[in-house]
Amino acid sequence: MSTHEARLAELREELKRQGLHGFVVPICDEHMSEYIGGYAQRLEWLTGFGGSAGTAVVLADRAAIFVDGRYTIQVRDQVDGRLYDYVGTAQQSVADWLGQNVPEGGRIGYDAWLHTRDWVKQVRAQIGKSGAELVAVENNPVDAVWHDQPERPTASMNPHPIAYAGRESADKRADIARWLSEQGLDAAVITALDSVAWVFNVRGGDISHTPVTLSYGVVHQDGTADLYVAPEKVSDALRAHLGNQVALHAYDAFEAGLDALGGKTVAVDPERAVAAIFSRLESAGAKIAARRDPSVLPRAMKNDTEIAGQRAAQARDGAAVSNFLHWLSIAGPAGGETELSAAAKLLSFREQTGKLVDTSFDTISGASSNGAICHYRVSEETNLPIVMDSLYLVDSGGQYLDGTTDITRTIAIGTPTAEMKRRFTQVLKGHIALATIRFPHGTSGGQLDALARQYLWADGVDYAHGTGHGVGSFLSVHEGPQRIAAFGGQGEPLRPGMICSNEPGYYKAGEFGIRIENLVLVEEVDIDGAEQPMLGFETLTFAPIDRNAIEPGLLSTNERAWIDDYHARVLEIVGPQLQGDALAWLKTACASLD
What we know:
Elements: H1 3-17, E1 22-26, H2 42-47, E2 55-59, E3 63-67, H3 72-78, E4 85-88, H4 94-101, E5 107-110, H5 117-128, E6 133-136, H6 141-145, E7 158-159, H7 162-165, H8 169-183, E8 187-190, H9 193-200, E9 202-203, E10 215-220, E11 225-229, H10 236-242, E12 246-249, H11 254-259, E13 265-268, H12 275-284, E14 287-290, H13 296-300, H14 304-334, H15 339-351, E15 358-359, E16 364-367, E17 390-396, E18 398-400, E19 403-404, E20 407-413, H16 418-436, E21 439-440, H17 445-457, E22 468-470, E23 479-484, E24 499-502, E25 505-508, E26 512-515, E27 518-525, E28 534-539, H18 557-574, H19 580-589
Parallel strand pairs: 1-5, 3-4, 5-6, 8-13, 11-12, 13-14
Antiparallel strand pairs: 1-2, 2-3, 7-9, 8-10, 10-11, 15-18, 16-17, 17-20, 18-19, 21-28, 22-23, 24-27, 25-26, 27-28
Helix pairs in contact: 4-5, 14-15, 14-19, 16-17
Domain Creatinase N-terminal: 7-139
Protein name: X-Pro aminopeptidase
GO molecular function, one term: aminopeptidase activity
C-alpha cells in the first residue's frame, strides 16, 4: 500500500469514528490564504497534490480531487488515479459532485475554519436534496491522523517602516473608521493576512514567499483596533510601532474577541472570512453586515512611495534576471544543466543583490514538456535536463522590502521549431496588445482579457489561466481585487495605482510551454483630442525577451517598434547594473529586430 493510499484508508477510519460518511479537504488556512503554512497543507499530505488551489472529497467508497485548468497535467502526475477521480472545476463544482454522489441521509463533514459561508450554503443546498447533512466538525479528522503535522510557525511580527509603506497605520485606520461611520457600522473584522499586514504596517515570516504573520484585526468606528497575534511574536519595538490605539491580544483569543462584539453591527467580508467567524458572531448576538474588507481597494491602489519602491525593486530584480539569462545563454547550450540547477542559479543572482528577503513564490523552472505545466513545481523526481533545440520556461519573483516582483521568460535553447516560434510570437503579440491598450475609467480586466488571446484564437488555440493578477507591495504576489481574466474578479474596474501582471501563454502538453510576463502599473494617460479621461499601462518589468524565439514576419511595424523600444528601456535601466561579458550580452540581446 502506498503512503497516500494508507493515509486515505486511515482518514476513512477516522471518519467512521466521528460518525461521518465523507469529508471535504481544501487547500486553505483559517484566513482563506492562497499560500499557506506547512501545518495547513492537509491536501498535499493526504493526496500528494502540490498546487496552490484544489479540493478533495473523501467518501467511504469513493474520492475525487478538484482542480482548475492550471493543474490539469500536474494533478495527474502527483495524485494516484486509482484513489481519486480527477474533476475539473470548470466542468463540475464540489457542491454538484457531492449532490450526485452523497449517500442518502449521509453526514458530510467540513471544517468551518477552512470554508466560506457561501460555500457552506451551496453544498448544504445540493446535498440536502438527497436528505444528506453537512456537519461542521469539532476536530478536523485529517489533523487526527496526521501524526507528524507541523506546528504553527513562530516567526516574529515586525514593523514595516513608513519609508516603504508610504502611509501611517493610524491614517489607514482613520479611513476605515470613517467608512464604518458612513456605513452605520461599529467595527470591521479583518481576516486576510495581507490585509492585516497592510492596515497595521507590519510584516512577518509565517508563510513561505508571503511576508505575513498569522493574525486577525478588528478596527472600530473610533479608529482604535484590536490585533490578535501570538504573544511570542511581539517585541517591544512592535508595541511602540503600533501605539496605544491598538490593543494586543493572543491569537487564540480571537474567538473570545468575536464574542465581545455581541450587540454590535460588524462588517465581515464573505469572500475572505471563514464560515466559523460568521457563526461565532451570530451566536454572540452581533448583527453582521456582509461587506468587502475595507482595506482591499486602497491596498491595491499603490501610493507614490509604494510605486517608487516597486520601480526600484523591478530594476534590481531585472538585473538579476538578466544576469541569469546571460548565464543561461552559455550554460544551456553547453549541457549539463537541469531545472533545479537553473532555479538555484537564478536564486543566487537575486541573493547577490543583497536585498532579497524571499522569493515571491516557488520558482517555476520548466524544461521541454514540463514547461507545459502552468504552475509546475520542480522536484528531484520531476527534474528534467535543459537540452538543445527546446524551450525553457522560468517564472519567478522576489520579495524585497520595497516591492514584490513576478516575471516569466521563455528561452529557446538552440534552434526552436517553426511551431515554437509561431506560438511564441503569437503570445508576444498578445502581450504587446495588452501593454499598449488605452481604456476609459470603469473598464475591468475582464474586458481586456481577449486582447491577449486574439492571435492564439486565430489559430484555434488558447491557454487555461487568466492573463493577469494583482500584485502586492512587499506582500502577496497574487493580490485582488483586480484581475485580467474572463472569470473571477473580472468585473472589478482597473484604477490608477493598481499593479497587474501581463502574462499570456501557450502550452502544448507533453512538448513545451510558453509564457511572457511583465508587471504593469495602471496609470492616467493623455490622449490628444480625448473626450474623457483615459487609462493605460506602464510596464514595470525590465529584462530581455528572447529575440531568437520570435518570428519577425508575424509582427506589425508597431509591434516591432514596441519590442525595440522595450529593449532600449531594458538597456537603459538594467545596463548600468551589469558588467563585462554580461553587459556585452545584454547589448546584443537588446539590439533592434531590424
